């Protein structure tokens, strides 16, 4: 699998990737050997990240003007650095006072981060930050519930730049300490050839299932999606292999792109890594990392069961057969051995977690294990040590991009803390929750989808967790369920139209239409979209929630299985025991599936019984005629 992050095109980009290698090595060395002053570490990480993104980003049509602009931004940040360290002692003692000089310096630093975040992630994140800042200053002039006391420039700069609550706040420290190593780990795992091995093995194992190519793509994208900090990056990395494979088996262009997008987004919700959001969630919830991973396991499993079921129903509807025996890849002993490229590093990671190691140290164990397994099992990896260098460069660039995104989130947090808007927002949703919890959840869902649009997973979760999770906790939802709820919809913002940025990456690879792809992705992800409501009302499915009940757990699993079958066959238009379904059959199954998702026993119990009846009394078709797509 070839990484497509950034191929150097000129000496400055080569220099930037060289700096990214150094950045990765610094991260590894600090985890293994050193303890650095927190302020120095956070500012240093931000400074290196800014330089890496400035040097490696594609300037497009700006030509030399782009390099001049980036040089100016780096000089602006250097100027801000001088003032930051000049007043650092005052920050520790709490006697810092904003002056015109250090305000200008802070503004220069913020501007540099904001502009270069656009290079890394597009305009969505920057627009959101600007909107929040404008909201902060315009408070006294806003109408109705939006009105607040406002903030002045000195107060904003003090909390946003010259404190440990904004750009260099706890979130930046948390990501720098625990998350960046996993981006390097994912890049190294990709360069060892683990991706090719996983795709080959999953293709061979699923080839006898109808729609096997799509099932194989789901497995591969899920595994690599959990290590990627971006749905779009994962689609770009795995989609070039999986999407053509899905199309060759007979699925439509839009369906192929939708499967890859849905699987890649689901990988962000898959333990043990969950795109590193698990470590931030554990810190915010105050729960051990292993318990958060356990909480994520069953919901993620059902998200993928639902996706597999939708693909299977589509294969039946289109009369796509499983591959002929002579076309099924043969699994050799070497293939099983090569699977260790994926599973042994992840196993080492899990062993380190369970034995009580910190997330950063567990990530380091996984990284070193990946390098060792690559050297042992992949002759190309042994012959080309430069693969490790390229992996460190890829990981360093990814780490730099994430840190800039977190820096921009720090600006948003400064406004949130200064204006108290999060408390007001939480109170409004909690008030709605007093009369109707479902209304509070729907409001929270739409808020999460809107705030998360166009953002990578970790920054999206951060801002939504701070703005919305406290609101639904106030409405009576358990903290772990509330944070899992907002994480799910932060991730699903990548497939929800009209933004659906993941689909805009997948559609060109598939040759499809981005908007049509997003609607298909939404349809095949319906189980994943509903699962968050299920674990809010039945938190036992999270395994670690207070008041865990085996009865509730078993009943929830039973009704979810019924819902998956009914909804997949209704939305897919086909059933393995019946063949193609008519409008009436689909409508009835849709109602049964919806009832099975309800937390009321007088609704879900009859739905489960109806599902069993469908299974017992349906007849297997002798032939299935394909439908035109």
Q: Mind explaining what this structure looks like?
A:
This protein has 31 helices and two strands. Among the domains are: 11-124 and 152-178, no CATH class; 559-629, no CATH class. Helices cover 74% and strands 1% of the residues. The model is unreliable at 1-6 and 623-629 (pLDDT under 50). This is C4-dicarboxylate ABC transporter. Keywords: Cell inner membrane, Cell membrane, Membrane, Transmembrane, Transmembrane helix, Transport. The chain crosses the membrane at residues 12-35, 41-58, 65-85, 91-116, 123-142, 167-189, 216-243, 273-302, 336-354, 360-379, 391-416, 422-451, 458-477, 483-507, 519-538, 550-571, 591-617.
Quick structural gist:
GO terms for molecular function: transmembrane transporter activity. The protein contains 31 helices and two strands. With 629 residues, the protein is an all-alpha fold.
């Amino acid at each position: 699998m070839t990484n497509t992050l950034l191929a150097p095109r000129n000496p400055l980009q080569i220099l930037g990737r060289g700096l990214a290698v150094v950045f990765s090595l610094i991260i590894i060395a600090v985890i293994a050997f050193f303890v650095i002053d927190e302020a120095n570490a956070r500012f240093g990480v931000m400074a290196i990240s800014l330089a890496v993104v400035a040097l490696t980003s594609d300037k497009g049509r700006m030509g030399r003007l782009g390099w001049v602009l980036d040089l100016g931004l780096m000089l602006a940040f250097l100027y801000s650095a001088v003032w930051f360290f000049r007043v650092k002692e005052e920050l520790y003692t709490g006697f810092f006072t904003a002056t015109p000089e250090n305000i200008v310096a802070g503004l220069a630093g913020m501007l540099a981060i904001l502009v270069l975040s656009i290079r890394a992630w597009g305009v969505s994140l920057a627009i959101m930050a600007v909107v929040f800042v404008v909201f902060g200053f315009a408070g006294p002039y806003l109408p109705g519930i939006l009105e607040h006391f406002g903030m002045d420039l000195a107060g904003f700069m003090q909390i946003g730049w010259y404190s440990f609550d904004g750009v260099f706040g706890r979130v930046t420290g948390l990501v720098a300490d625990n998350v960046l190593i996993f981006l390097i780990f994912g890049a190294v795992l990709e360069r060892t050839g683990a991706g090719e091995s996983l795709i080959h093995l999953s293709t061979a194992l699923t080839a006898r299932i109808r729609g096997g190519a799509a099932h194989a793509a789901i497995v591969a994208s899920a595994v690599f999606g959990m290590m990627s900090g971006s749905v779009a990056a994962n689609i770009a990395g795995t989609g070039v292999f999986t999407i053509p494979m899905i199309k060759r088996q007979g699925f439509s262009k839009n369906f192929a792109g939708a499967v890859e997008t849905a699987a890649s987004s689901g990988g962000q919700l898959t333990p043990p890594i969950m795109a590193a959001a698990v470590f931030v969630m554990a810190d915010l919830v105050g729960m051990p990392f292993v318990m958060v991973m356990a909480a994520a396991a069953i919901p993620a499993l059902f998200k993928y069961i639902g996706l597999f079921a939708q693909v299977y129903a589509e294969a039946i509807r289109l009369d796509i057969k499983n591959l002929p025996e002579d076309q099924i890849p043969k699994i050799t002993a070497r293939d099983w051995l090569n699977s260790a490229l994926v599973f042994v590093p992840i196993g080492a990671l899990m062993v380190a977690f369970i034995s009580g190691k910190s997330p950063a140290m567990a990530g380091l164990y996984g990284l070193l294990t990946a390098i060792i397994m690559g050297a042992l099992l992949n002759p190309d990896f042994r012959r080309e040590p430069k693969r490790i260098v390229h992996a460190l460069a890829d990981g360093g660039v990814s780490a730099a991009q994430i840190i800039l995104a977190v820096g921009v989130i720090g600006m948003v947090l400064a406004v949130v803390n200064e204006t108290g808007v999060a408390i007001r927002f939480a109170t409004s949703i909690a008030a709605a929750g007093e009369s109707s919890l479902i209304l509070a959840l729907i409001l929270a869902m739409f808020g999460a989808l809107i705030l998360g649009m166009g953002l990578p997973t970790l920054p999206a979760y951060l801002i939504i967790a701070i703005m919305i999770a406290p609101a639904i906790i106030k409405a009576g939802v358990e903290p772990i369920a509330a944070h899992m709820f907002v994480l799910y919809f932060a991730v699903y913002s990548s497939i929800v139209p009209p933004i659906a940025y993941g689909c805009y990456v997948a559609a060109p690879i598939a040759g499809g239409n981005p908007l049509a792809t997003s609607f298909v992705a939404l349809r095949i992800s319906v189980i994943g979209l509903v699962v968050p409501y299920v674990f809010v009302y039945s938190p036992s499915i999270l395994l670690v929630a207070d008041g865990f009940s085996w009865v509730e757990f078993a009943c929830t699993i039973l009704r979810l299985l019924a819902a998956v079958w009914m909804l997949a066959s209704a939305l897919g238009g086909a059933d393995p025991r019946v063949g193609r379904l008519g409008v009436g059959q689909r409508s009835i199954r849709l109602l049964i599936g919806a009832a099975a998702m309800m937390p009321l026993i007088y609704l879900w119990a009859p739905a489960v019984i109806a599902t069993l009846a469908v299974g017992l009394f349906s007849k297997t078709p002798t032939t299935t005629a394909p439908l035109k797509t």
